[in-house]
Amino acid sequence: MRLFLPSLLLCATLTSSLRAEVTLDPWSYTEQDLYPSALISTATVDWNGDDQDAEDKKTADDPKPKKKDIPIYGDENGWLAVDLTGVPKNAAVEVSISIDGYLKPSTWKGKVSRVTKAGEARIFPKALWDYEALLKVRQQRPVNVTFKATVNGEAIPEANETYVMRSLNDCMFYVLYDEESEDFDDFSWLFAAYVNENHPEVDVILKEALQSGIVSDFSGYQSDDPKDVMMQVFAVWNALQRRGIKYSDVSHTTPSKLVVSQSVRFLDDSVRATQANCVDGSVLMASVLSKIGITSYLVMIPGHCFLAFDLGDGEDAKRIGLETTMLGNDEIKSVEEIAHLTEKAKLTEFKASYKTFTSAVKIGNANLKKYKAELEDDSEDADADIQLISIPDARELGIMPIATSKDPR
Question: What is the rounded average pLDDT of the residues 96-109?
Answer without folding.
Answer: 97
